[in-house]
Specification:
By secondary structure, the chain is mostly beta strands. The protein folds into 3 domains: 185 residues, Lipoxygenase-1 (Sandwich); 88 residues, Jelly Rolls; 94 residues, Sandwich (Jelly Rolls), CATH 2.60.120. The strands form 7 sheets. The chain has a 6-stranded antiparallel sheet. It has a 5-stranded antiparallel sheet with strand order 5-6-2-8-9, with no helix packed on it. The two termini are 47 Å apart.
């Protein structure tokens, strides 16, 4: 990519490499208006994990810093994520050889790369940004430098920069020390003292959260987990791509074109109180597979479909009212964890860990149907294996069912009301 260029990236757990010897990487999570919302929205070496678990920072020790950004878990209030690089000890961005930023999908595929070739006397730079657009995420090559350094960049985005007083002797900052706390709401971000005051003693290296050893090509990375919790191996089954989105009103036929073959997640949202049906059309333009068959008001749900090896995915939609369809890769589906999650309607979930039990609490009146697809020995990424039925019951219930080791697709094929699910360790 060239400076200023942008492109869609898959709404999955991306791994972003910031390369350049002597460059410190950080991320700023911005709300509407371009400002951070609090201390936690600054991810840097002294606070390497965002409170939501969506973004974490690790250092590979070879001139590369890694920002793991789980786009599907970034809070709704966040509209942009800035990827920032900075230098110290009198060095400028011009002095950094091989400065670049590159985003990788969970399967190790590079989805965006920007090589900075015009660095000047700046000591801080917004290298790139991720921002929401049309229901998905875009990556923009920014390359905006700040002559007044990290202090100027931080101030421009609502961060209150706290500097040690000149009369104070520099002291090593413990890793566990919290960020400086000014009067709310402006968050504090500590910077090293500027000349002529000697620099602050180096901070002890922060132990990375769930460290991932770099390999070539880049190893897949699971969506960032809350501190103290592991989701297991990364999701690497199937291609990744930018979401396909279409909106309309009432009955229609939808043609999904330009996507790689394989299983996908189709999210359908309908605002209305009539019947909702969604059917796959075959090559003869005849109805083939029912995906949705519901009389629920304001239907919302996620279902499985497959992009054919040849041709396009064609869907017949029956709806009364405005609707929106989003087609995403499997990797964008929610990941099951030990923390209880709330859902409504049919859905598609992922299990990436070992053997576990799945606890379900269902509040609907009609059928609850749960199927799984075991992928551990299935190498054909253009199709799913045969499914196995776990639950087929009617009415409200509490249910705990055993799950084999992942990777698994867990499909709630039918669920007409609210439900909850969580993993239980075995």
């Amino acid at each position: 990519m060239i400076k200023g260029e942008n492109s869609f990236v898959p709404s999955v757990a991306l791994r972003i490499a910031v390369r350049g010897s002597g460059v410190d990487a950080m991320a700023l999570l911005l709300m509407d208006g371009g400002a951070v919302g609090g201390d936690g929205d600054v991810v840097f070496h002294g606070a390497p994990m965002h409170p939501s678990g969506a973004i974490r920072l690790t250092d590979a020790g070879d001139g590369t810093a890694w920002l793991d950004v789980a786009l599907t878990t970034v809070e709704d209030r966040i509209t942009r994520v800035l990827v920032v690089g900075s230098t110290e000890n009198g060095r400028t961005m011009r002095d950094v050889a091989g400065l670049s930023v590159e985003a990788f999908a969970p399967d190790g595929t590079s989805v965006a790369r920007y090589d900075v070739t015009d660095g000047g006397t700046e000591t801080a730079m917004v290298l790139a940004e991720l921002y929401r657009r049309a229901g998905g995420w875009k990556f923009r090559a920014v390359g905006q430098g700040y002559a007044n350094g990290l202090a100027g960049l931080a101030t421009d985005h609502g961060v209150d920069v706290a500097r040690p007083a000149a009369a104070q002797a520099p002291q090593a900052v413990p890793v566990s020390a919290p960020l400086a706390q000014p009067a709310p709401p402006a968050p504090a971000f500590a910077l090293p003292p500027q000349p002529p005051v000697p620099p602050v003693a180096p901070v002890a290296p922060v132990a990375p959260v769930a460290p991932i050893a770099p390999v070539a090509p880049v190893a897949p990375v699971a969506p960032a987990a809350p501190e103290g919790m592991s989701y297991g191996p990364a999701w690497s089954y199937g291609p990744v791509f930018a979401p396909y989105i279409q909106s309309g009103r009432d009955n229609d036929v939808i043609t999904v074109s330009g996507l790689p073959p394989g299983p996908v997640v189709v999210q359908l949202d309908v605002r209305g109180d009539g019947y909702t049906g969604l059917t796959v059309l075959d090559w003869k333009n005849k109805e083939k597979d029912w995906l949705v068959n519901s009389t629920e008001d304001d239907f919302r749900g996620r279902v499985l479909a497959t992009i054919p090896r040849k041709g396009n995915l064609r869907l017949r939609l029956e709806a009364e009212g405005p609707w929106r369809v989003e087609v995403s890769p499997l990797a964008a589906a929610p990941v099951l964890t030990e923390q209880e999650q709330e859902f409504r309607g049919p859905d598609v979930l992922l299990h990436t860990g070992g053997v576990a039990d799945l606890a379900i609490q269902y509040g609907g009146d009609d059928n609850l149907i749960v199927n799984i697809y075991e992928l551990s020995r299935h190498d054909d990424h253009t199709a799913l294996p045969e499914d196995e039925n776990l639950v087929n019951e009617i009415g409200e219930r509490r249910e705990t069912v055993p799950l084999p080791a992942g990777p698994l697709v867990v499909q709630f094929e039918a669920a007409d009301g609210p439900w909850r699910a969580r993993l239980k360790r075995v």
